[in-house]
UniProtKB/TrEMBL annotation:
This is Uncharacterized protein. The lineage of its organism: Eukaryota, Metazoa, Ecdysozoa, Arthropoda, Hexapoda. Keywords: Signal. InterPro entries: PBP/GOBP, PBP_GOBP_sf. GO terms for molecular function: odorant binding. Residues 1-23 form the signal peptide. Pfam families: PBP_GOBP (PF01395). It comes from Arctia plantaginis (Wood tiger moth). The keyword Signal applies.
Length: 148
């Protein structure tokens, strides 16, 4: 694993990329996240045949490549463990490396806690984490408005 203090900006980064939402983040915060996560995004995009240029178009209910790309990315940035389980505590800790606005951090923490429910969902792909990654992505997407 990468050993860097990132987090669920994996999900947030992909959600940002596909929704053009800036979620209360400054341009500098977004640029820093992109710089740090780009190698992982690129590696997982190659591994799963997902183009970073069209994330918005390929993400849908049935795109397994996108979901497995997300799982790969979340594992690389250590937001998912080796069993494909979301770690909201690590997500919140790592968010503090990027987000400086206390109000945004508080909202982020609430969304991370709310989205931890994905760990209770039954998934058929086990440690692959593709289905859980899709659930987490959907949860973040649903709650992104709270971060705006």
């Amino acid at each position: 694993m990468c050993g860097v203090n990132f987090w669920t900006f994996a999900v947030l980064m992909v959600c940002l990329a596909r929704s053009s939402v800036h979620a209360g983040l400054t341009k500098e915060e977004i640029a820093t996240m992109l710089d740090i996560t780009k190698p992982h995004l690129e590696e997982c995009s190659k591994e799963h045949g997902v183009s970073l240029d069209n994330l918005k178009e390929i993400e849908d209910e049935t795109n397994e490549n996108f979901s497995c790309f997300m799982s790969c990315f979340l594992k690389k940035i250590e937001v998912f463990d080796e069993k494909g389980i979301f770690d909201p505590k690590k997500s919140k800790e790592n968010a503090r490396s990027f987000i400086k606005n206390e109000e945004t951090l508080t909202l982020f923490d609430k969304v991370a806690d709310e989205c931890s429910k994905v760990n209770d969902a039954e998934v058929s792909d086990g440690i692959e984490g593709c289905e859980r990654a899709k659930l987490l992505s959907d949860c973040w997407k649903e709650h992104l408005g709270k971060l705006m």
